[in-house]
């Protein structure tokens, strides 16, 4: 564990808590893509099956359980409890165009051709693009609430910090996982446009609005 | 050799 990894994990945790708090306090999931949230739940469910097969640390297990349970809770809140506020008309990204190619790629490019390893690879690839329905939704509505922007910034920062963690681990531990690094870079690149808007607008007290 | 099944990262 290094400082980048720790701050990255905390940023990921913060993102999820921010999203849940926003929904709970406003009793609404307006502006949030349910499709992205389903993809994140799928990501965690397929990645953390190793909870049943290998133990790494208490920290590791607690975080995995937290991520799986909160992602399911988020999906539940969106599709059941606060369903009336879900903006499905703007959440029209075709997720099959992500899940099917990513599934195929996980079969073809993986560290080992075994069920758990393929599922892990699938989750890494899927996570890298899971935010696309959310970004697509924002581009359709042309705006994002400030709290949603904070959520996205924390969520995007997490993988960017993981890249620093991988650089650190490569130099000091000789650790290098090509699949995670490439997918992590793709994931971070997808957020760059948003990061720019966040820094130039939200941090100066303005809302994100996009030209039509 | 590192055990690739022991995923330390989240």
TrEMBL record, chain A:
Keywords: Endoplasmic reticulum, ER-Golgi transport, Membrane, Protein transport, Receptor, Transmembrane, Transmembrane helix, Transport
Superkingdom as given in the UniProt entry: Eukaryota
Record's bilayer topology term: Multi-pass membrane protein
PROSITE patterns named among the record's database cross-references: ER_LUMEN_RECEPTOR_1 (PS00951), ER_LUMEN_RECEPTOR_2 (PS00952)
Main localization of the protein described in the UniProt heading: endoplasmic reticulum
One GO CC term on file: endoplasmic reticulum membrane
Membrane-spanning residues: 62-80, 92-113, 119-138, 174-199
Gene Ontology MF annotations: ER retention sequence binding
InterPro entries reported for this sequence: ER_ret_rcpt
Any one GO BP annotation for this protein: vesicle-mediated transport
Compartments reported by the entry: Endoplasmic reticulum membrane
Pfam family, one: ER_lumen_recept
Family named by the database record: Belongs to the ERD2 family.
PANTHER family according to UniProt: ER LUMEN PROTEIN RETAINING RECEPTOR
Name of the molecule in the record: ER lumen protein-retaining receptor
UniProt organism field: Biomphalaria pfeifferi
């Amino acid at each position: 564990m290094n400082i980048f990894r720790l701050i990255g994990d905390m940023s990921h945790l913060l993102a999820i808590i921010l999203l849940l708090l926003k929904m709970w306090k406003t009793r609404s999931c307006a502006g949030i893509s349910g499709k992205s949230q389903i993809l994140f739940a799928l990501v965690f469910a397929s990645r953390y099956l190793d909870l049943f097969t290998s133990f790494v640390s208490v920290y590791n297990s607690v975080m995995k359980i937290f991520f799986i349970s909160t992602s399911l809770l988020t999906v539940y809140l969106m599709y059941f409890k606060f369903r009336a506020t879900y903006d499905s008309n703007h959440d029209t990204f075709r997720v099959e165009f992500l899940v099917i190619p990513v599934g195929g790629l996980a079969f073809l490019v993986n560290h080992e051709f075994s069920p758990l390893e393929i599922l892990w690879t699938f989750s890494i690839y899927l996570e890298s693009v899971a935010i696309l329905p959310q970004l697509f939704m924002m581009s359709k509505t042309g705006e994002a609430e400030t709290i949603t922007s904070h959520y996205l910034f924390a969520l995007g920062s997490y993988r960017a910090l993981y890249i620093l963690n991988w650089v650190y681990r490569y130099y000091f531990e000789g650790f290098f996982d090509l699949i995670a690094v490439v997918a992590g870079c793709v994931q971070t690149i997808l957020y760059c446009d948003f990061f720019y808007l966040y820094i130039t607008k939200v941090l100066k007290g303005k809302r994100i609005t996009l030209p039509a | 050799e590192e055990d690739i099944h022991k995923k330390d990262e989240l």
